[in-house]
Write a structure and sequence with these properties.
The complex is a heterotrimer. Chain A is an alpha/beta fold. Chain A contains 12 helices and 10 strands. Chain B has 6 helices and 2 strands. Classes of the chains: A alpha/beta, B mainly alpha, C mainly alpha. Chains B and C meet through helix 1, helix 3 and helix 6 of B and helix 4, helix 5, helix 7 and helix 8 of C.
């Protein structure tokens, strides 16, 4: 059973002319961390809204094809039921937190699902600890920084014990410190908890280190899907869809062009350091002769 | 983590779904109520010599009623204005305000949206809604709070000014927002 | 301007610990009492009692002054205006043309002012000692529909957000030369439209995301919703309730049954 299965999906918002998603097929395995890259209007937000049935239940339009999450067709069950499988975090930190305290915010989902009180307490503590917000129980969401708000939003989704977490540009409105905190939570979710994650981003840099797969989108179409190393071999492709490639992969592609090879492909600064040192220290056989 | 394994309630279908109003209504009404209170609060201008005060809260009551209907006008106008009263230190007015502004929003919403919200309907709705508000304050102060006829009458001119200005601004806002952002005013 | 977005002050007094439902009932009962009492001295006693409670709630001087600022103006106005519009009774203290100031009318004005003082300040016993979340929780526990309570909670939650939003839009418009604190009422109001339109549009966008967030967190999934936080009446709460009931019932009995003039 796939975590997410999009089968030839097309979607057009009501009162709009263009297809926001056009013939998109995508499969996500359980435990996979998939980063969807694209700029404004590429369709990645639309894709996120499809995963828990907000499209078509809350947002009207013309939907074709099928979307299923862990084997259930989200079009055929209420959002509140899909919500138990898929947690979703939106771009705007302030407007997705609507309770008067962090604790109530995280408890809201399980309360709606009629989870017993003691169990809710356990879940709230568990989720707040996971996102590094332990002890903030009685703070008002209004008083938190953007990064803290997004981490509370993640905790509020996790407390429903979803099997998959979908994040739509969660770092968009954040400062560098806030981003750092957020990505370290995402890394923990993948590495310690094996959560299935779909992350929509317009920046490939931060998600690079822990993504299993990059999916490139443009104008509602899915252009490419594969391991980051493979997708990043040609940074021009990223620039073409309006996404800034990570600087370190730019260096690799520059080296490849200059030296007329294609052997350089590194994703982290450490990898780059090792590869370049190796290249420099290597005895130059042809030169000696 | 121990909690990871348990799966309470993750079969959402087990219980009967609740019979609540739609989430869109909860969100929009909550936001309009907060806006009414925040705008009343932010535009609050005390002035002499009558030592009364003036604010633009009525513009939000009329906006809610004209753009979202009488329910929004009554609920958001009434509760938002009453909350602003409590937060501004005039909590004594809160119960009367709840009724007065609630009635204002209700009547303005019912009449102001007749015939698809033609200009005459909007004007009539604002006039009738404003009249309800002014009457409620007058009777409330005079008969319920028993503050004496003089104090109750002193309040009337200020309230008329609030209706005229608030009504004009509210009508303009509703016209502009409905026209430029049609998707935002659908519930 | 002036005032507080959240009136609650954290402290650990018996009023803070009291069940919010009891405090809501207390405000209602004491308000009712202010209407029952018609004798000036009894109303002043009630006013003293309310201030005693505010003092016991450790309301700071600035907060107490805030609760009084508006109502003092109000009370002075009543005392001045009442006799002018009420020419009944004797003796006449002064007269000017058709206006007669009589002694009973002056006392009636003072009595009304005292009642208004009670009705205005009694609120703040509740507001200073109860957090907004407990207030909403109490209302839902007392039978208010959950979806309505949630709407109320959302409006309280977003009040400071929109307050900050209005401030930042005001600043932005001022930087573009918009005048908001000078000029006549009409001009000022007209200029305010330039603040209101972006505020409303931004707030309604917030509502859009908000409604998606509510659904994504299983809003309305089950009718038998549970609650993380419960309110439990303790013995002291029942005692407080009994005392309050006595404070109301005794004067009511005296006035309406025994026909004592109080």
């Amino acid at each position: 059973m796939k975590a997410l299965e999009l089968n030839n999906v097309r979607f057009k918002y009501r009162d709009f002319q263009n297809w926001a998603l056009d013939s998109v097929s995508l499969e996500v395995e359980k435990g996979e961390f998939v980063t969807i890259l694209g700029c404004n209007g590429s369709g990645k937000s639309t894709l996120c809204l499809l995963t828990n049935g907000l499209i078509p239940h809350a947002i009207q339009g013309n939907l074709q094809g099928s979307v299923s999450v862990f084997g259930n067709n989200v079009g055929e069950q209420p959002v509140s039921q899909s919500a138990t499988k898929v947690g979703i975090v939106f771009q705007e930190p302030e407007s997705q937190l609507f309770c008067m305290s962090v604790e109530e915010e995280v408890a809201f989902g399980p309360e709606n699902l009629a989870v017993p009180r003691e169990e809710i307490k356990t879940r709230v503590e568990w989720a707040l600890e996971l996102v590094g917000m332990k002890g903030y129980n009685n703070r008002s969401p209004f008083s938190l920084s953007g990064g803290q708000k997004q981490r509370v939003a993640i905790a509020a989704a996790l407390s429903m014990r979803p099997e998959m977490l979908v994040l739509d540009e969660p770092a968009y409105a954040l400062d560098p410190v806030g981003r750092l905190g957020l990505y370290s939570v995402l890394r923990d979710l993948k590495e310690k908890h094996g959560m299935t994650v779909i992350l929509a981003e317009r920046d490939a840099e931060e998600a690079l280190a822990f993504s299993d797969r990059f999916v490139l989108m443009k104008d509602g179409k899915l252009l490419e899907s594969g391991p980051p190393r493979q997708v990043l071999r040609d940074p021009a492709k990223l620039r073409e869809i309006g996404v800034a490639p990570p600087q370190v992969t730019e260096v690799a592609s520059l080296l490849n062009t200059r030296m007329g090879t294609s052997k350089f492909s590194f994703l982290t600064v450490e990898e780059a350091e090792r590869a370049i040192l190796e290249e420099v220290l290597k005895p130059k056989k042809e030169g000696r002769r | 983590m121990s909690a990871q394994g348990s799966n309470w309630g993750n079969s959402g279908a087990a219980g009967k779904p609740a019979n609540y109003v739609s989430p869109k209504i909860v969100a929009v009404y909550g936001v309009l109520t907060a806006l009414t209170a925040a705008i009343t609060y932010a535009s609050y201008t005390p002035f002499s010599p009558t030592k009364g005060y003036f604010n633009l809260g009525d513009s939000m009551v009329f906006f809610s009623a004209l753009a979202f209907g009488w329910r929004a006008g009554a609920i958001c106008g009434g509760i938002g204005s009453a909350a602003a009263d409590i937060l501004l230190g005039s909590g004594i007015y809160a119960p009367i305000t709840l009724v007065a502004k609630g009635a204002e929003g209700l009547v303005a919403g019912v009449i102001g949206r007749m015939k698809g919200g033609k200009a005459w309907a909007v004007a009539l709705g604002i006039g009738a809604g404003g009249a309800c508000m002014i009457t409620t304050y007058f009777l409330g102060e005079w008969l319920l709070l028993d503050v004496g006829l003089g104090k109750a009458i002193a309040e009337i001119p200020i309230n008329i000014a609030q209706v005229v200005l608030g009504g004009t601004i509210g009508a303009l806002l509703s016209y502009y927002v409905k026209k430029s952002y049609p998707s935002l005013t659908k519930t | 301007m002036g005032g507080f977005i959240d009136l609650y002050t954290e402290a650990d007094t018996f009023l803070h610990r009291m069940d919010p439902r009891v405090k809501i009932v207390a405000v209602l009962l004491l308000s009712l009492l202010a209407f029952i009492l018609s004798h000036l001295y009894l109303l002043l006693a009630l006013l003293t009692f309310i201030f005693l409670l505010l003092f016991l709630a450790r309301a700071t001087i600035s907060r107490t002054a805030f609760a009084l600022k508006f109502v003092l103006r109000f009370m002075v106005l009543i005392i001045i205006l009442w006799p002018i519009f009420d020419p009944t009774g004797t003796p006449v203290l002064a007269s000017l043309g058709p206006i007669k100031i009589t002694e009973p009318a002056v006392w009636r004005g003072v009595t009304s002012a005292a009642r208004v003082g009670c009705l205005a300040t009694v609120w703040y016993i509740l507001m200073f000692t109860t957090s907004q979340r407990d207030l909403v929780r109490a209302l839902v526990k007392m039978g208010v529909r959950f979806d309505f309570g949630l709407t109320l909670a959302i409006s309280l939650r977003f009040l400071p957000t929109f307050g900050a939003l209005i401030d930042s839009i005001k600043d932005a418009q001022r930087a573009r030369g918009l005048e908001l604190s000078k000029g006549g009422l009409l001009k000022r109001s007209k200029n305010y439209v330039a603040v209101l339109v972006p505020t409303i549009v931004s707030a309604l966008r917030t509502a859009d995301t908000l409604s998606l967030a509510l659904q994504s967190r299983a809003y309305g999934a089950r009718a038998d919703r549970t609650y993380l936080r419960d309110l439990n009446m303790r013995p002291s709460d029942y005692v407080a309730l009994a005392v309050l009931a006595a404070i109301l019932v005794l004067p009511a009995f005296a006035k309406f049954v025994m026909q004592v003039d109080i």
